Automatic annotation (TrEMBL):
Protein name, UniProt field: Maleylpyruvate isomerase N-terminal domain-containing protein
Domain spans labelled MDMPI C-terminal: 172-265
InterPro entries: DinB/YfiT-like, Maleyloyr_isom, MDMPI_C-term_domain, MDMPI_metal-binding
PANTHER family for the chain: CONSERVED PROTEIN
Pfam families for the chain: MDMPI_C, MDMPI_N
Domain Mycothiol-dependent maleylpyruvate isomerase metal-binding span(s) in chain numbering: 8-130
Keywords noted in UniProt: Isomerase
Top-level taxon of the source organism: Bacteria
GO MF entries: isomerase activity
């Protein structure tokens, strides 16, 4: 995907997050992030937006700490604070030069491409959290498949058609997000998805040609993407439409379909949180 496409996605997803949070209310529980309420979600995502904006707008060459959102703000004031930070991030990305030089933490064609992509996916995942809170607040059936990255996991539940948070995601965007997660985040030494003996997990998008082979061992996962199912046998395959796969790998939806050893799918649920 192009940087401009990521910025457009960030714009849309931030607006959707705001709308869902406003309708749910800041005291609403967030089923996809146990122990969080909407105010916590807004403070976290708004703080991440401001953190990212500083790198893009000020060109910081090294890591900077992520500070917490304002505890003193709530209700409409907190929503306004969130909207302001989202708008400033968009403005910074749109104004940034193509040769922007600043710190990043995942491989990317450029720092500008990295921050646009990372914030588009960050905001999308948390938009799903806000919509789960809205469904919960209005009494709609809500599945509780996953948790805020790093918090652990819960059991999968049946998906109610009215609670399909993936419905507005394109396959292209979802494949891009799976690339970032498997080839970026989980290629880092801090990934906790490990096995005592070598195993192979396959992730297959049924509505595209994208197939990821993830080799698991006592080392960080080694993933590669192909445009067709590789001949290598897999111990477990997780398959489904790209948009559903994307959110399930982020522990926001149940896995669409699992074949082979279900323990590997369970391992992902239990250890894949991004802290």
């Amino acid at each position: 995907m192009e940087t401009a496409e990521h910025i457009r996605a960030l714009d849309e997803e931030g607006r959707l997050l705001t709308a869902a949070a406003r309708k749910a209310g800041t005291d609403a529980e967030v089923p996809t992030c146990p122990s969080w309420r909407v105010r916590d979600l807004l403070r976290h995502t708004g703080a991440v937006h401001r953190w990212a904006t500083a790198f893009v707008a000020e060109g910081h060459p090294s890591p900077r700490p992520l500070t917490d959102g304002p505890e003193e703000l709530d209700g409409d004031a907190l929503l306004t604070w969130f909207e302001d930070g989202h708008r400033r991030l968009l403005d910074a990305l749109r104004a940034a030069p193509a040769d922007l030089d600043c710190w990043t933490f995942l491989p990317a064609p450029s720092p500008l491409a990295f921050w646009a992509r990372r914030q588009a996916h960050e905001t999308t995942v948390h938009r799903v959290d806000a919509e789960s809170a809205l469904d919960h607040a209005t009494g709609a059936p809500v599945m509780e498949p996953g948790m805020e990255p790093g918090m652990g996991a819960v059991e999968d539940h049946a998906v109610d058609p009215a609670t399909d948070f993936a419905v507005n995601l394109t396959a292209e965007f979802a494949v891009d997000g799976i690339d970032e997660l498997l080839l970026g985040f989980h290629a880092r030494p801090r990934s906790q998805v490990r096995t005592g003996t070598p195993r192979v997990l396959r992730v297959r998008a049924t509505d595209t040609d994208a197939v990821w082979t993830v080799r698991l061992s006592s080392e960080p996962p080694a993933a590669e993407r192909a445009d067709a199912a590789p001949p290598l046998d897999a111990d477990c395959e997780i398959a489904g439409p790209a948009s559903r796969l994307y959110l399930s790998l982020w522990n926001r939806l149940p896995f669409p379909a699992v074949t082979g050893d279900p323990a590997l799918a369970g391992l992902w649920r239990e250890t894949s949180g991004i802290g």
